[in-house]
Design a protein that fits this description.
Distance between the termini of chain A: 56 Å
Strand content of chain A: 5-15%
Distance between the termini of chain B: 7 Å
Strand order of the largest sheet of chain A: 5-4-6-7
Number of strands of chain A: 7
Bound molecules: iron/sulfur cluster
Helix content of chain B: 40-55%
Radius of gyration of chain A: 20 Å
Oligomer: heterodimer
Radius of gyration of chain B: 17 Å
Order of helices and strands of chain A: HHHHHHHEHHHHEHEHEHHEHEHEH
Number of strands of chain B: 4
Largest interface: A-B, 23 and 18 residues
Number of domains of chain B: 1
Number of helices of chain A: 18
Largest sheet of chain B: 4 strands, parallel
Strand order of the largest sheet of chain B: 1-4-2-3
């Protein structure tokens, strides 16, 4: 068998060919050429030295729906990642979205002596160079430049996170030596690159003397929490997602009433399916007076991915997934769709702008909304 | 005849540390392409395009200007001085202009490196280290040019 290591590592040998994965997969729904079941089957039949040669292996969103539903507990996303790792070795790769800008930004961060500017920090926020709590903003300021045309404001999310932490009495450390968490490199099979990012990121955070690292990005959080221990070592720093932190101390948060609004919430795959962070965002939304939360038909662990991931393979199929999801949000009657992942925000904004949806809906980031609803706090930045 | 040919006919030659990368139209230059050059350790990139309004494909030079701006912003966030990415629009007949743009951009580099070297020397406590020698070495520059 050509894929023995991958099959053993991800328990793909347990596959029953039941097809639950394909039935659950948002990509298979719109792309008949893509079937996770078939990917597993074909890999099982390959001989030593053979490669899978299938461009569809880059279509998987790594959303994890199949992982959750597989009766044989096959780690399909892990399997896909290893297949990609193998494909890269024979010179096959996914088609990068946004003319590769995002992966180029990541590669800049591997330059020796890389030191980012903290120019994105707003005036009202308090940070420090060293401290017990670190705030990991990740790529947010960079995303600002690339997605300004669709109205995405990454730095605002980062500043809002720090404002919320400040509100809880925490002045987080930030570092100019912080690098990309390596999420996209990892999921596109560039394991060595991801490892380098992991080492650098851990080093940057550790250098500030932090014992806890707070994330506003679901992907960075998941990397630190679940991937780094396997990839390099246990970071030795406790990763915590800001929504958990906020929900735990929700009695300390004083939200001012906002104009009456119906909102619906898009669960990010990395938080909902990967980390069970399901109640926290809902508790927080309900804590803001004036907001009424209505759920989409598929919510929580059953929610649908925002339709594109790791900045590869964004096709008509991905647009269809996004439009369907937006229509689902619009059907709830909500005025605003709340996202908690910068990528969900970007992808859904992009699809909304195309105008193929059944109506209009506003898209707002949860953390920005919470920070803007704080009593006495400054708005904007 | 292109500005490049004009300039070379007049006896202009590029600094040996320079690589010229012709592209079909300045508007085809991508942010990722420029960023990747920096990620490879190239010290500076000068993007040259046709005069605004002269574009064979309608708005290549304008588009290129936007791309350079966007790239500069990203470089700035990544702690790489935006001036390391140059941008000039030069018409076919302006061989001299091209020469001026290229040498001007290059000089700015050497000055930067020399300044750094001086600063390093003056702050060094002991005898000059070998590292200061490295910083006075000529900067590696990538120059990309496009003219019809
Ligand atoms: S759901 Fe699991 S067992 Fe069923 S076909 Fe997919 S991988 Fe195989
Ligand atoms: S991870 Fe998501 S996109 Fe990939 S095969 Fe599973 S359900 Fe489909």
């Amino acid at each position: 068998m050509g894929f023995e290591r991958e099959i053993n590592k991800t328990r793909a040998y347990l596959c029953l060919e039941c097809g639950v994965c394909t039935g659950s997969c948002p990509v298979s729904r719109f792309n008949p050429d893509y079937s996770p079941r078939m990917v597993v089957e074909r890999a099982l039949l390959l001989e030593e030295g053979e490669s899978i040669h299938d461009r569809e292996i880059w279509s998987c969103l790594t959303c994890g729906t199949c992982d959750l539903r597989c009766p044989s507990t096959v780690d399909f996303t892990g399997f896909m990642r290893l297949l990609r790792e193998k494909a890269l070795r024979v010179g096959e790769e996914g088609i990068c979205t946004h003319a590769e800008t995002l992966s180029a930004i990541a590669s800049l961060q591997l330059l020796p002596g890389f030191r980012r500017r903290a120019s994105w920090l707003g005036k009202g926020v308090k940070t420090r160079k060293r401290g017990k709590v670190y705030y990991f903003g990740g790529c947010l300021p960079f995303l600002d430049v690339v997605f300004r045309d669709i109205g995405f404001e990454g730095s605002r999310i980062a500043n809002a996170s720090i404002r919320l932490l400040n509100h809880l009495g925490i002045i987080p450390a930030v570092s100019e030596y912080e690098v990309c968490c390596g999420h996209d490199a990892y999921w596109t099979g560039q394991t060595d690159t991801a490892r380098t990012f992991a080492r650098k990121a851990i080093e940057a955070v550790k250098a500030t003397g932090a014992e806890q690292v707070v994330f506003s990005c679901p992907e960075g959080y998941r990397m630190f929490k679940d991937v780094y221990p396997d990839l390099v070592r246990k970071p030795g720093i406790e990763p915590v997602h800001i929504l958990t932190l906020l929900a735990e101390s929700s009695e300390k948060l004083r939200f001012v009433p906002t104009p009456k609004k119906k909102v619906t919430y898009q669960d990010p795959c990395r938080l909902a399916k990967g980390e069970d962070i399901l109640d926290e965002p809902r508790v927080l939304l309900e804590a803001v007076p004036g907001l009424e939360l209505v759920e989409m038909k598929r919510a929580g662990k059953d929610s649908i991915c925002c339709g594109s991931s790791n900045w590869v393979n964004c096709t008509r199929v991905n647009k269809k997934i996004q439009v369907e999801r937006l229509d689902e949000a619009i059907a709830t009657g909500a005025d605003t769709l709340i996202t908690a992942c910068p990528k969900c925000n970007i992808h859904l904004r992009c699809a909304l702008r195309d105008g193929d949806t059944s109506g209009e809906i506003e898209i707002t980031d949860l953390i920005t909304l919470l920070a803007d609803s704080l009593g006495g706090g400054k708005r904007g930045t | 005849m292109t500005a490049m040919e004009n300039a070379t006919r007049d006896g202009f030659s590029f600094d040996p540390g320079t690589t010229v990368m012709p592209v079909k139209c300045a508007g085809l230059v991508k942010v990722s392409f420029l960023l990747k050059l920096f990620a490879k350790g190239i010290e500076g990139v000068l993007v040259l395009g046709c005069h605004e309004g002269d574009c064979h494909y309608y708005n290549g030079s304008e588009r290129c200007g936007q791309i350079v701006e966007e790239t500069r912003e990203i470089l700035g966030l990544a702690g790489i001085p935006a001036r390391r990415l140059g941008f000039s629009l030069i018409a076919d007949s302006q061989g001299k202009e091209l020469k001026r743009a290229v040498t001007g951009f290059g000089k700015q580099f050497k000055t930067v490196s020399r300044k750094k070297a001086i600063r390093r020397k003056s702050t060094a406590k002991g005898p000059a280290k070998s590292s200061s020698k490295k910083s006075t070495a000529r900067s590696r520059r990538g120059v990309r040019a496009r003219n019809k």
